[in-house]
Write a structure and sequence with these properties.
The chain has 218 residues and is of the alpha+beta class. It is 29% helix and 25% strand. α1 packs antiparallel against α3. The termini are far apart. 22% of the residues are buried. The N terminus and C terminus are likely disordered.
Length: 218
């Protein structure tokens, strides 16, 4: 039977003398998981400790046929998001099955993607005369959707010009990079764009209107 222990439950039965990995005949239909665990405990003599919240709303897989106790429990829990851990030879605890860690991102692929991001941001700035002027230091963070479009852009500090600040956000949000984000890439990406006066090489020529600004006409 199942007995409550605080917010936990124990599916247990009188001890059944068994040793080794011998199979047991099971005939447990699909049903609420806590009831299925009681039936499992009755069939195997193994106690299963679990938090009642873990089984709430979950249904077991049907179990019919001969299985080792461990294989039977794994079959019942398939697709439930739960797994078991042994606390002793005859006692088990039910826990959440943590999602596997994402595979590490290949450093070369990530570096290439950063280069792609910088290139697309440069193109977007060149398309706006206000940004192409390159008068301002621009520090920002961007978040990229899985399909490869910038879904959010935040300035880390104002450029000192409200029009430029607004133009940066307008130019970048929704901008497609043309390539999906590498799986597992950490976000956000941080970009620092120095003004032309710093000597940094710019992708686009200085706008004509900006070059002649302040000069006396000939």
């Amino acid at each position: 039977m199942a007995t409550g222990i605080g917010q936990s439950r124990v599916a247990q039965s009188p001890a059944i003398a068994r040793t080794g990995p011998e199979t047991v005949a099971f005939d447990i239909p699909a049903q609420p998981l806590d009831a299925a665990l009681d039936a499992y405990a009755s069939s195997t003599g193994q106690s299963v400790l679990y938090d009642s919240h873990l089984t709430e709303g979950r249904t077991s897989k049907p179990l019919h046929g001969a299985y080792t106790p461990l294989a039977a429990l794994a079959a019942m829990l398939e697709g439930s998001g739960l797994k078991v851990r042994y606390t002793s030879a005859r006692a088990l605890v039910l826990v959440r099955d943590a999602a596997p860690s994402p595979a590490p991102v290949d450093a070369a692929s990530l570096q290439r993607y950063r280069g792609l991001l910088q290139s697309r941001v440069g193109d977007a700035f060149c398309a706006d005369p206000l940004l192409a002027a390159g008068d301002r230091r621009i520090a920002l963070r961007v978040w990229i959707a899985p399909r490869g479009a910038i879904e959010r852009a935040d300035l880390l500090d104002t450029t000192g010009d409200d029009d430029v600040d607004a133009a940066v956000i307008a130019a970048l949000e929704g901008l497609s990079l043309g390539e999906a984000l590498p799986a597992g890439a950490a976000q956000p990406f941080t970009l620092l764009i120095m003004p032309r006066s710093s000597g940094q090489s710019w992708r686009c020529p200085e706008p004509v209107a900006h070059r002649t600004q302040g000069r006396n006409p000939t």
